Amino acid sequence: MAIILYSYFRSSAAFRVRIALNIKAIDYQIRPIHLLKNGGQQHQPEYLQLNPQGLLPVLAIDDLIISQSSAIIEYLEQIYPSPAMLPELAIDKAYVRSLAQIIACDIHPLNNLRVQEYLQKKWDNEDDKQLWYHHWIQQGFSAFEQRLEENDNNGLFCFSNIPGIADAFLIPQVYNALRYSCNIQPYPLIKGIYDNCMQQIAFVNAAPENQPDAE
User: Fold this and answer.
1) d(Cα 55, Cα 32) in Å, to the nearest integer?
2) pLDDT at residue 116, rounded to an integer
3) 111 in Cβ contact with 176 (< 8 Å)
4) Closest CA to 207 of 78, 72, 40, 14
5) What tens digit of pLDDT does each residue of 201-211 get?
6) Is 111 exposed, middle or buried (0-12, 13-18, 19+ CB in 10 A)?
7) Alpha helices of 67-208 — where are they, by DSSP H?
8) CATH superfamily to which 3-83 belongs
């Protein structure tokens, strides 16, 4: 069974899936799709046949094609249940998923490549773009940090001392925030989780600089 991940080294959504695949020790191949070269390889007809949205990532398992990082990771959790990336209790599952959705629904869509390219056309001033990016990071991370503070189960990771789905979503967003010079010192729990995760081999091997298409 061939497992192929269509990925771009700087895509935070693809980064999430790489983390999940690595945590579960699943063998997979990277198929690079460059989001900038030739007008963006994700817009080429061959790739649009896989994902009509022209977005990354896509996971291909033989003839099965799955898009959207949340759906991919949930699928992997069901097909490869060990090690688990979700806690046992339903209420804890809901909490962990809610953390992931803060990233996937409320931060990332406002700061992704498509939005940045649009803002580039509208605003000549790079400082304005930076302010936009920092604003939405601050809004999202403040809420995320508060949720962590209110829950007694946070530890080395977002939930307890086992890496899970919330970490797979959080770490790429923190990585990008640091890349854009966001100050994460006001979020000590987030920073502690990030520092710990980036010492784990599953996260290190998933990092952008360690991808075959890294530049």
Assistant:
1) 13
2) 75
3) yes
4) 14
5) 999 999 999 99
6) buried
7) 69-79, 90-101, 108-111, 113-122, 126-150, 165-179, 188-197, 201-206
8) Glutaredoxin (3.40.30.10)
What does the pLDDT look like over 97-106, one tens digit per residue?
999 999 999 8
Residue position matching structure tokens 């508060």? 146
pLDDT digits (tens, 9 = 90+) for 49-62: 999 999 999 999 99
One-letter amino acid for residue 1 of the chain? M
Longest dimension (CA), the chain: 49
Chain-centroid distance of CA 89 in Å reads 24
User: What's the CA gap between 165 and 150, in Å, rounded?
Assistant: 19
Q: Which residues contact 76 (CB under 8 A, 6 or more apart)?
A: 20, 21, 24, 26
The predicted model scores a pTM of 0.93
- Burial of 143: CB neighbours in 10 Å, binned 0-12, 13-18, 19+: middle
Domain boundaries, the chain: 3-83, 90-202
**Per-residue pLDDT at 130 exceeds 80:** no
What CATH number belongs to 90-202?
Answer: 1.20.1050.10
Neighbours of 201 (CB within 10 A): 9
